[in-house]
Amino acid sequence: MEELLVVEDLVQEFKSRPGILNLLRHKNGTPFKEQRTVHAVNGVSFTIHAGETFGLVGESGCGKSTTARSIIRLLDPVSGRVLYRGQDVSRLKGSQLRPYRKNMQMIFQDPQSSLDPRQKIQDIVMEPMLFHNVASDRRDAEDRCMKLLERVGLRPEQAGRYPHQFSGGQRQRVGIARALAVEPEFIIADEPVSALDVSIQAQILNLMMDLKDEFKFSYLFIAHDLSVVRYICDRIAVMYLGAIMEMGTKAAVFDDPVHPYTRMLFSAVPTIGEAPLVEPMEMTGEIPSPIHLPEGCFFHERCPYAGEECRRCRPGLKEIESGHFVACHRCG
Q1: pLDDT tens-digit profile of 7-38?
Q2: How many helices (H) and strands (E) does the chain have?
Q3: Which of 275, 281, 282, 296 is the most buried (most CB within 10 A)?
Q4: Residue 123 and residue 167: Cα distance in Å, rounded?
Q5: How many Cβ atoms sit within 10 Å of the Cβ of residue 10?
Q6: By the 8 A CB rule, do 187 and 217 touch?
């Protein structure tokens, strides 16, 4: 399959603001403002193929959204590379990013905060068309906008309304139309249904799958809901503390999870009248602070199988079977 996006050893860090304890004064009276580093993404690597839906899953705060924002260049990576069709886009600046922006769009988690409340829906959808010269003029943009709104399940007569006049599901349909407005090859969907009512989630997911088949683009799909990931994704990467623990096809990861963290994550999914995904495993301990990363395997402090090697050396991803990778000294 054709490689569309390749992420190599992506690292993203943030400098934290000094808290109240860091405002204590030295004996000479000068303020002590030690700046600490939050290690949000720690050497993430994966490949997304043309026409594929690739899922990132993990607990809240594991670095999924930060990875996505670094790929699309809403954040500048600290190190690593992002290759789009073979071109390294991780260091492009200003106008160099314009064609990249056109080919890659994003659907955000909260449709209310991601839409400008002062703009009408038609202007929200038309603006990227005109900026990227997808439409020849404003009339052409209006025609394209009406067709897109209809395609995502909205009526053309609603185009003159403002975001606050729509429900959450309708606003997310507007967000999807805006992402499609520039005819992208790749869309990042960051928790696109988590803010919606359960009754609406299936409708939006089915719409997104239909649009992918119709317009032939690829998804990076981010979610913490495993049932959603299992429904929509072709391949999956499981993240923990800014690193990938396990990666493979949907069948490989869900039918035969190998990494202890993946098994613990799956065993935490509540089931009613159904067999659990894996044998129950107790999720012990707390996630370590991303400011003070553990030495060795990031998961060893919570892992019931951790040995001395796990405490000393961080494992890299290794292929245990065709297309199935795991970062564990004791697996495979």
Answers
A1: 999 999 998 766 555 555 555 555 555 678 99
A2: 10, 12
A3: 296
A4: 18
A5: 24
A6: yes
